[in-house]
């Protein structure tokens, strides 16, 4: 849909009230937009900072009606927004990304099929939706990881399996919902790239991010010159662009990759929205992933982002509230006494082990300095 540019003063809507929505709202408001968030939770991180918060279920036609009445264009902050909700909104307002792209990203089997269609290599895998498909799994996919096709995140909905017996048992535990079995790959490291594509097809990308996961959850992202070899970085950006192009995508898209021992890249998954591994860009880049989301939604021009220096992002999980037995506030003042630390807390009402409560970005003049500050932060919080 070609349409007019929405200038500051317009209202931008977002489906979902989590931390990604909150940071989108912050970016939009900084630029002079009004914001409307739809989320059922009265205490949602984004709902609490938005000009308008529509408390309704994602599929409630009246709630969607209210969002479309308030907002001139609508985006989404988590990929499990029902496609039907985006379709209803799209009948009244521009919606970016579109329902079709979000539906593909919601389903690992469809997502992998799309990667292959775009000529982007993914891990050897098999779709398991029937007992026949389970029986037909090739031996070379084991050991592997059985992942539910839908609704997995932060390592949830996954089970490592070494034998056919373990595979069958794991599928039973998952109540035989549609799954993908992926071969377990020997990872040298992981990286991701955030691209933004405008309504006119113009694309820009953030620098490639190098990521460390712990227990299936992102723990650390590092961005600095040559954090990944140039050939891998080029391939990551080219792959992400091909995937976005193939979807006719409008908005911010993150693609995660595995890098194998020989330096080759295998795509892992995509997120049709800003991503945890791009949070460093709020302070570390001249244009953040959330500003890119605002620009693509409003139809503003995109400029190629530039890293301002090295950055390291540390995720703050609920675990650090429970370090010494009882619940206690982490030592924020000590962390903020170190220069170059930028604290983000998402305003979640209660800390829980494994829950993403916030993140900390460390910026500085040199990689050595940023690394040593990040290490000190980890000691203070660990
Ligand atoms: P989620 O949707 O929960 O983020 P992912 O599929 O990205 O799930 O898996 C989470 C993490 O588990 C990955 O970032 C990676 O560290 C590890 N992992 C996932 N699939 C594989 C694989 N095929 N081989 C090796 N490690 C994997
Ligand atoms: Mg992942």
Describe the protein in words.
This protein has 382 residues and is α+β, with helices and mostly antiparallel strands. It folds into three domains: 11-95, Rossmann fold (3-Layer(aba) Sandwich); 124-183, Dna Ligase, domain 1; 187-381, D-amino Acid Aminotransferase, Chain A, domain 1 (2-Layer Sandwich). It is 30% helix and 26% strand. It contains twelve helices and 17 strands. It has helices spanning 19-30, 61-70, 83-90, 99-105, 108-117, 131-135, 164-173, 230-247, 281-284, 289-298, 332-336, 367-381, and strands at 11-15, 34-38, 52-54, 73-76, 125-128, 144-148, 158-161, 179-183, 187-197, 203-205, 209-214, 217-223, 251-260, 265-271, 311-317, 341-345, 356-363. Strands 9, 10, 11, 12, 13, 14, 15, 16 and 17 form a nine-stranded antiparallel sheet that branches. The chain has a four-stranded parallel sheet with strand order 3-2-1-4, sandwiched between helices. Helix 1 links the parallel strand 1 (11-15) and strand 2. Helix 1 (19-30) crosses helix 10. The mean pLDDT is 95. Adenosine-5'-diphosphate (ADP) is lined by residues 123, 145, 147, 152-155, 182, 184-185, 187, 190, 213, 216, 256, 268-269.
Cα shape: globular
Report the average pLDDT across residues.
95
Q: Termini distance?
A: 49 Å
What is the name of the CATH class of the largest domain? Alpha Beta
CATH topology of the largest domain: D-amino Acid Aminotransferase, Chain A, domain 1
Q: Any ligands, ions or cofactors bound here, and which?
A: adenosine-5'-diphosphate, magnesium ion
CATH superfamily of the largest domain: ATP-grasp fold, B domain
What oligomeric arrangement do these chains adopt? single chain
What class do helices, strands and sheet pairing give?
alpha+beta
Number of helices: 12
Percent of residues in helices: 25-40%
- Tell me the radius of gyration: 21 Å
Mind summarizing the main beta sheet?
9 strands, antiparallel
Low confidence ranges: none
What is the string of helix and strand elements? EHEEHEHHHEHEEHEEEEEHEEHHEHEEH
What CATH architecture label of the largest domain applies? 2-Layer Sandwich
Question: Can you tell me the number of structural domains?
Answer: 3
Beta-strand level of the residues, as a percent range? 25-35%
How many beta-strand runs? Answer: 17
């Amino acid at each position: 849909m070609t349409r007019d540019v929405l200038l500051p003063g317009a209202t931008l809507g977002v489906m979902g009230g989590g931390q990604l929505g909150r940071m989108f709202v912050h970016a939009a408001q900084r630029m002079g937009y009004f914001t409307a968030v739809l989320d059922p939770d009265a205490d949602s991180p984004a709902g609490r900072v938005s000009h308008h918060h529509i408390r309704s279920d994602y599929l409630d036609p009246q709630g969607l009606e209210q969002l479309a009445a308030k907002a001139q264009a609508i985006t989404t902050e988590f990929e499990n927004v029902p496609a039907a909700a985006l379709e209803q909104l799209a009948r009244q307002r521009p919606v970016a990304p579109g329902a079709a792209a979000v539906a593909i990203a919601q389903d690992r089997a469809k997502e992998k099929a799309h990667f292959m269609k775009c000529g982007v290599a993914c891990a050897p895998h098999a779709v398991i939706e029937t007992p026949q498909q389970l029986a037909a799994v090739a031996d070379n996919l084991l050991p592997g990881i059985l992942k539910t096709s839908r609704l997995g995140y932060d390592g949830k909905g996954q089970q490592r399996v070494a034998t056919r017996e373990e595979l069958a048992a794991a599928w039973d535990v998952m109540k035989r919902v549609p799954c993908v079995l992926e071969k377990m790959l020997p990872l040298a490291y992981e990286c991701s790239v955030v691209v933004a594509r405008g309504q006119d097809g113009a694309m820009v990308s953030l620098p490639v991010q190098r990521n460390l996961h712990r227990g299936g959850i992102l723990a650390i992202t590092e961005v600095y010159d040559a954090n990944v070899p140039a050939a891998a970085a080029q391939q990551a950006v080219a792959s992400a662009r091909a995937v976005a192009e193939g979807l006719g995508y409008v908005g911010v898209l993150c693609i995660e990759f595995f890098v194998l021992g020989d330096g080759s890249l295998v795509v892992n998954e995509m997120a049709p929205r800003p991503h945890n591994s791009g949070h460093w860009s709020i302070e570390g880049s001249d244009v953040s992933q959330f500003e890119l989301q605002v620009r693509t939604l409003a139809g503003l021009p995109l400029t190629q982002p530039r890293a301002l220096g090295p950055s390291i992002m540390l995720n703050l999980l609920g675990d650090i509230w429970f370090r010494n037995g009882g619940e206690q506030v982490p030592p924020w003042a000590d962390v903020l006494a170190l220069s170059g630390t930028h604290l983000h807390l998402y305003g979640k009402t209660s800390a829980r082990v494994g829950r993403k409560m916030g993140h900390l970005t460390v910026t500085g003049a040199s990689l050595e300095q940023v690394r040593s500050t990040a290490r000190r932060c980890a000691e203070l919080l660990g």
